[in-house]
Design a protein that fits this description.
With 261 residues, the protein is an alpha+beta fold. Helices cover 19% and strands 43% of the residues. The chain is built from five helices and 16 strands. α1 packs antiparallel against α5.
Length: 261
């Protein structure tokens, strides 16, 4: 099955220190990194069991001068990059990087939603992406895409109009508002919620699956990361931890708790 309009197909970490980030995430998630072979660029591919899952690159001086900071960013599949850019901008989004091609990879553009949250639009060539585990849990793969928005209703409208996502369900979180799940065809793509006050800016938060949440949380804290909260139990009996990696990028992990915890 090929990538379809509205699928999350890739996740990319832009870091201040790719070597240090590679060491941290290799230990945290078990990714094996290799150079992508892109000429003139240090772009690394993180794989799990031989399956490409994420990309890693250093922030350039120009990016830093223009306000970029260490962060995870998602790529969303579209049938037509130019048309999707026009529609996103017409609906209040912005364009950060004009559409361009990467030989053997595909065509992409870097945009923002109306709340300023960045993401990529991409028409990929080659194999179907398995970065997001759509149907079955898979260690080392993304397990959930969560949007923290200053205006959840507007965000939901924007993404549903742009990609064809649909609301699937909701959960009342009391003072934190509604947690609204979104569906892409026959699987859940993620959720949108009100940005907590302690989170400085609206953002996409990506959860990657670990084998043992306690072991992974301990590793993060002991290897330069800063655990913000967790492990915290969520509906279904799994646990999540959120933190900052050693370069300050927000990360999130999900997994089961060990029997001895």
């Amino acid at each position: 099955m090929s990538n379809k309009q509205g699928d999350f197909i890739w996740y990319e970490l832009m870091s201040r220190n790719a070597d240090a980030a590679q060491a941290f995430y290799s230990g945290l998630l078990g990714w094996q990194f290799a150079d992508s072979g892109m000429p003139g660029m240090d772009y690394r591919i993180g794989s799990m069991g031989g399956v490409p899952v994420v990309g890693l690159m250093n922030l350039t001086d120009e990016m830093l001068e223009n306000g970029a900071y260490p962060q995870w960013t998602g790529y969303i599949s579209v049938n037509d990059v130019e048309d999707s850019v026009k529609r996103a901008c017409k609906s209040g989004g912005g364009l950060l990087m004009e559409p361009q091609d990467v030989e053997g990879v595909g065509r992409f553009a870097f945009v923002t939603d109306p709340q300023g949250v960045p993401f990529y639009l991409m028409t990929a060539t080659g194999d179907t992406s398995h970065s997001y585990a759509k149907y079955q849990p898979a260690e080392g793969h993304c397990a959930w895409n969560e949007l923290l928005s200053t205006d959840p209703d507007a965000s939901k409208q924007f993404y549903c109009d742009l990609f064809g996502w649909q609301k699937a369900d909701e959960m009342d979180m009391g003072d934190m508002g509604m947690y609204e799940m979104l569906r892409q065809d026959d699987y859940l793509i993620g959720a949108v919620m009100k940005k907590p006050s302690e989170v400085p800016t609206p953002l996409w938060n990506y959860y990657f699956r670990v084998a043992d949440i306690d072991t992974a949380t301990t590793f993060a804290a002991a290897n330069g990361g800063h655990v913000l909260h967790g492990p915290t139990e969520i509906p279904g009996g799994e646990f999540i931890t959120q933190g900052l990696d050693p370069q300050g990028a927000l990360f999130a992990i999900i997994g089961k708790r060990s029997a001895s915890a």
